[in-house]
């Protein structure tokens, strides 16, 4: 997948992951529906990361071949993505196998904050670079 279709798909996945996580919070981690939504959010998050890894970042790296400033920015954003990924995977690992945890609310708030910040960065900074690079092809 490439071009604007890729950006549309990634943007929809952002919305869907956020919606699923909000449902987890409202239904509760210890409910059947909450756990089901958590597992769905985890699956979608992993699919989304793979799509970015396979389709988005290689195209951005190709666009940055002759642009050192863009290369540096992408390296920084990629490192940030790795941090978010590790935090999300740790959260999903912990709560996909734990029914009740007193720290769930705090962990959830922290994950939600880093994910929504990352989504904003992708949509405001990274996706426009990708779209511009696709137009140049």
List the helices and strands and how they pair.
Blueprint lengths: L2 H25 L4 H32 L4 H29 L7 H33 L1
Helix pairs in contact: 1-2, 1-4, 2-3, 2-4, 3-4
Summarize the structure.
By secondary structure, the protein is mainly α. The protein is 87% helix and 0% strand. It has one domain.
Name its key features.
elongated; single chain; 0% strand; 4 helices; 137 residues; mainly alpha
Describe the structure.
By secondary structure, the chain is mainly α. It has one domain (3-136). Helix content is 87%, strand content 0%. The protein has four helices and no strands. The chain has helices spanning 3-27, 32-63, 68-96, 104-136. Helix 2 (32-63) packs parallel to helix 4. It is elongated, with a radius of gyration of 16 Å. The model has no long low-confidence stretch (mean pLDDT 91).
What can be said about the biggest beta sheet?
A: none
Q: Can you give the helix content as a percent range?
A: over 70%
Order of secondary-structure elements: HHHH
- Beta content comes to under 5%
């Amino acid at each position: 997948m490439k071009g604007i279709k890729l950006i549309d798909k990634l943007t929809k996945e952002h919305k869907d992951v956020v919606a699923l996580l909000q449902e987890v919070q409202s239904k509760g981690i210890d409910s059947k529906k909450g756990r089901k939504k958590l597992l769905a959010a985890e699956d979608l998050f992993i699919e989304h990361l793979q799509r970015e890894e396979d389709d988005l970042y290689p195209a951005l790296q190709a666009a940055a071949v002759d642009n050192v400033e863009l290369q540096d920015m992408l390296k920084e954003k990629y490192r940030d993505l790795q941090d978010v990924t590790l935090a999300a995977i740790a959260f999903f690992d912990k709560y996909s196998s734990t029914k009740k945890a007193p720290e769930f609310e705090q962990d959830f708030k922290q994950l939600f904050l880093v994910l929504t910040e990352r989504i904003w960065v992708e949509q405001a900074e990274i996706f426009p670079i990708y779209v511009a690079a696709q137009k140049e092809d």
